[in-house]
Amino acid sequence: MISASLKEISEVKKVALFYGHAASNKGDLAINSGLASILAREFPNALFYICFLDVKNKTYLEAAQESFGAVAGRCRFIQIQKSFVGASIDVQCAVRWLRTWIPHDPDIVLVNSGEFFFSYTGFSNFESLFWRFLPCLAAGGLQIPVAIAPSSFGPFEDGVSIALLRAVSNAFGLNARELSSERYLNRLDIRARLFRDPAFECPILNALPIEQRGQDRFVGLIPRLEYWGIRQEQRLAKEVHRKHKSAGFRSSVAFCVYRDIIEALLASPASVRVILLAQTLADRDLCAAIASAFREDGRVYMEYPVTYSEFLSSVSSCSHIITSRFHSAIFGLSLGKDVYGVHFPQHGNKLVGLFDSFQLGNRVFTIDSVSDSPQIDVSSFFEGNGPEVPRCGPGAFCIGEGSLLASNSSLDRLALCLEAVWRIAKFQLNGGDMRILSSFVSDYFFLPLSRRSNRAWPFNNDLRSVLYAIEPISDEVLSNANRIARRVV
After folding, report:
1. Domains of the chain and any CATH numbers
2. CB burial class (10 A; 0-12, 13-18, 19+) of residue 242?
3. Nearest-angstrom CA–CA distance, 244 and 162
4. What angle (nearest 5°) sits at the alpha carbon of residue 19, between those of residues 13 and 22?
5. How far apart are alpha carbons 120 and 15 in whole angstroms?
6. Which pTM value belongs to this model?
7. At residue 236, does pLDDT exceed 80?
8. H/E element holding 300?
């Protein structure tokens, strides 16, 4: 990879972003808003192509477009469909795909921040990985610099996804948004730079006055279900959600943990009121159920702010924040609140990494079961003021400095890995048994020759050829990846 020169960056006239977030999650919209602020600051004369990936919900799409207000009047919104024409993946094929959607070749390609970069056993996230990294291959083919906005990474529990990640890193570099991801990548011999999440740059967040509601201490609780999110298999997650919802969520770990927190807060000598805030639509029912458990007390209630500006205003009016949501912790830190984290391992390690990034690791609690309620010392909970945003934390992301050009050899490797990922994703989309494929891939391609399976290869021979061409990942690396991911990364 080659650094783009300052002269090239200063002459940027067109920037393509893949992809804008479109969801009810206020954190996703804050990423859009913060990134738009960075784009406006770094490229004051540029036109921005904001691409969305096959968004079906019109309400979410409209809210997402509004979140790019910092570049309003200078952006073009493009809806990209999940359709790819081509028998195989190579550099020129990727270039043709990009030019199908973008009317003019951009001067720089930017991959949005998020937590899309992981793969559990069984190739569970390969379709998403393909679409996230396809624009990178296309940009490399056009000799266009690529910047991957600070994101969360891992775990990667198969040799194919690790090979892909290394190929992307070698071509364009990677940027992490919290310490867990940086540590995880470094232990896989993948270098990454550490920056703040773009949400820290959200204009509305930085313009908010720091308010408080009356004389009482308002503690904002922003929970999430332990089994719901981008990392969970959606069919199973919906079944579990329906089961718990029918029982008022009282059997969920999240309900029990946050109920215990509220009971401890209300028993403290301080004058306390508790407000449950739902950061996303998926959290609303849980917040309502927790609040209803304290209906007779009168000091606990719930809000579901519709817009992310309203949500930020609600956070601003609290004195303390206790949350399982990554971006709610960011909002609280930015507004100088006293912030604590409640971390469920099912959601990866980004929340732990965020607190570690600001040397606040003692303020986040990992919950594995109902018996693991956070040991928050409420007797000293209201002493003093909340911490300012620590100056020792990661620096702000600079797109220009993070933009890199790929060499031809690194592009060839990236194309090969994307080809394997695409063929595996298609196998899944066509109803193939991913568990069987995962077993065969592990036996055939990522073991020493003496230990490879003698079973006949039952799948497409093109996939076999592509996988054989990928540089094998050693047992030691793969084992180390899994061990680190399941421990503290």
Report:
1. 2-196+397-421 (3.40.50), 210-380 (3.40.50.2000)
2. exposed
3. 36
4. 125
5. 32
6. 0.90
7. no
8. strand 300-303
